[in-house]
Specification:
By secondary structure, this protein is α+β, with helices and mostly antiparallel strands. It has helices at residues 57-69, 72-82, 89-135, 146-154, 161-167, 173-199, 209-232, 254-272, 296-312, 319-322, 324-346, 363-369, 382-409, 417-435, 444-447, 453-466, 469-476, 483-512, 538-541, 545-558, 570-594, 596-604; strands spanning 11-15, 22-31, 36-41, 46-49, 54-55, 277-280, 291-294, 376-377, 380-381, 524-526, 532-534. The chain crosses the membrane at residues 211-230, 250-273, 294-313, 325-344, 455-475, 481-500, 521-542, 562-581.
């Protein structure tokens, strides 16, 4: 085992990663396995450095003294000492040779300057002679001008003036050196820019890479249609696979697609209304902050008023249930067209506006994950709009349509208790998301993921048509539950909601303003990026506690459907698979981003929601 050079607590000079700059740091610890030093900078940042990136302060002081010894004042002192009789002859010879070289350089410079002046004089005479000839006067050469004769003696007759100017440049040497330095500096930054452009490419591909994403583009729409077809069956068990397929012409209706477009652009209109506050998002890679209008809850209120007006004028809202498959197909078609538009426009986007996770250079992968991070039409942010508006609010409207369809089909004056629970739980979830709309600006969907087929399909198809699966199932398969069971399920949902909301609030408030006095009780580990990792509260209890709340709520949404079939629990199974992927992705992302700080966090918070899956 090699001996360590620097002790704990020793103040040394540490090189900042990716640069040639050294800063004063203090050695915190040493890892015998990886042979890395953990050092702490003055601002509290902790990094793991190799021994080759650390130097003692004495070596920097030694260099400084060496450089100062070569200053002009020291050189003059050394020259004066060289004349001393006590100095060795070798030193005198070196000093005298240096003096001769200095004199020769000075003499050469004077000669070049004089010659350049003569050249300028000759050019001036030529100009003067031309003027005299134009005026009919004799030129100076006819009068044997002295300066011209001297110049002709200096220069050979067959030497061209241009060659002389090239040979004897009038630019001082210092300016030439500065030019060379500027050129090398420009070349250096161009190289750095090229390296950054190459490093910005997505190297680690998710979802099975190009082949996996290509298959998902077809598999996801097929899954949605399969789930809806199964819910329509009298016996929706897995043994009845595959369900009878409807005629293709019955899956498409222009009127239904028109209603879907009307719904989408109605939400666009609500989004563009000048109501609600405008806030800034997190800084982008170039330091810029985008502005977002927070009016999702107002859009929900306006939508509720519009739906109430339709019901007042006796519009049959269960039209959604009767044409549910056609609405799903319309949403799939619209999301595909939107994804194609997003990818085409992303090809013209600047490099700094591309998504970190969707810049692989592979068409299929970038099309699926999203190539551009924040596609906008003016101030209209397409990704931010689709994240909460048409799909999430549409989910509530679909649930309401299923409730009314259940009452009509089964001739009930009141909806079933199961349907009421499903509608109430999911309404709470949607209202909470819209009320805390600003919190979405700190999520991975906004800060990291691009807007492509994955998010477009998820926001416009998966959320409204799969998340409403329990309500759709209960219309054709009513399930009776008792009040005590309903009370127990309600308590379970409240626990899940409390964990979900309090954990997300801690994270979002801390990201927004770590210095908030209300968060003074929270402890955190500082990182090299300037951010902190919470080690108290919910985030000190388990990693990703918000995912734990999601799973509990998903289970509470499915329990009112009973245990006759597994189909209503598809959402729970899907949600667990999704969160396993997200947690694994977050673990990998945080390890790369925070380095040693993340390892310290994992030691402080060893518990994970899925400890044995990855």
């Amino acid at each position: 085992m090699p001996n360590r050079r620097f002790a704990d607590g020793e103040v040394v000079m540490g090189r900042w990663p990716g640069s040639v700059l050294y800063y004063e740091v203090q050695v915190a610890s040493y890892d015998d396995v990886s042979h890395l030093y953990t050092v702490k900078y003055k601002d509290g940042t902790e990094l793991a450095l190799k021994e080759s990136d650390i130097r003692s302060q004495s070596s920097f002081k030694h260099r400084k003294s060496q450089s100062s010894s070569s200053s002009p004042s020291r050189r003059s002192t050394s020259r004066s000492r060289s004349r001393s009789p006590g100095r060795p002859a070798k030193g005198r010879r070196r000093s005298s040779s240096q003096s001769r070289e200095h004199k020769d350089d000075k003499k050469k410079t004077i000669q070049e300057t004089n010659l350049a002046l003569l050249v300028l004089g000759f050019l001036f005479k030529l100009s003067e002679n031309n003027t005299r000839r134009y005026n009919g006067e004799p030129d100076s050469t006819e009068r044997n001008d002295t300066s011209c004769i001297i110049l002709e003696q200096k220069l050979k007759p067959d030497l061209e003036i241009e060659r002389v100017l090239e040979q004897y440049s009038l630019h001082p040497r210092k300016e030439e050196k500065k030019k060379e330095e500027r050129h090398s500096e420009k070349k250096f930054f161009e190289t750095i820019k090229t390296i950054e452009k190459a490093s910005s490419k997505t190297k680690e591909l998710e979802f099975g890479g190009r082949i996996g994403t290509f298959m998902l583009i077809f598999f996801l729409p097929a899954t949605v249609l399969y789930l809806l077809l199964m819910c329509k069956q009298d016996d929706p068990s897995l043994m009845n696979f595959p369900p009878p397929l409807p005629a293709l012409e019955s899956l498409w209706e222009v009127r239904v697609f028109g209603v879907f477009l009307l719904w989408f652009f109605l939400q666009v209109l609500f989004y563009l209304l000048p109501i609600g506050k405008v806030v800034e998002g997190l800084p982008l890679s170039n330091g810029r902050k985008l502005q977002y209008r927070i009016n999702g809850f107002y859009a929900f209120i306006l939508t509720a008023a519009a739906v109430g007006a339709l019901l007042y004028f006796q519009f049959e809202l269960h039209y959604l249930y009767d044409h549910f498959m056609q609405f799903a197909v319309s949403a799939v078609a619209f999301s595909m067209v939107l994804s194609i538009y997003l990818y085409i426009r992303s090809l013209k986007a600047p490099e700094e506006e591309l998504a970190p996770g969707g810049n692989s250079g592979y068409f299929v992968y970038d099309f699926f994950t999203g190539h551009e991070l924040n596609p906008r039409i003016g101030s209209f942010d397409l990704k931010y709009f689709c994240e909460l508006r048409p799909g999430l609010i549409g989910w509530v409207v679909i649930n309401l349509a299923m409730l009314l369809a259940e009452m009509k089909i089964h001739n009930q004056s009141m909806p079933s208790l199961s349907m009421i629970l499903v509608n109430s739980f999911q309404l709470l979830y949607v209202v909470d998301a819209l009320w805390n709309e600003e919190a979405i600006l700190t999520t991975m969907d906004i800060t990291h993921d691009g807007f492509g087929f994955m998010l477009a399909f998820g926001d416009l198809v998966w959320v409204p048509f799969v998340y409403s699966l329990q309500a759709f199932y209960l219309v054709g398969h009513p399930t009776a539950i008792s009040w005590p069971v309903a009370a127990a399920i309600t308590i379970l949902n409240c626990i899940g909601y409390y964990v979900f909301r309090s954990a997300n609030s801690q994270k979002n408030n801390f990201r927004r303003n770590p210095a908030d006095p209300r968060l003074a009780y929270l402890k955190f580990i500082p990182t090299a990026t300037g951010k902190g990792l919470l080690v108290t509260g919910w985030w000190g209890f388990v990693r990703h506690p918000n995912y734990l709340g999601d799973i509990i709520m998903a289970l509470a949404w499915s329990l009112p459907c009973g245990f006759n079939h597994i189909l209503p629990y598809f959402y729970v199974i899907y949600f667990i698979c999704l969160l396993v992927h997200r947690e694994a992705r977050d673990e990998h992302h945080c390890k790369q981003k925070y380095g040693v700080a993340w390892e310290r966090y994992c030691q402080r918070v060893p518990y994970r929601i899925f400890p044995y899956i990855y």
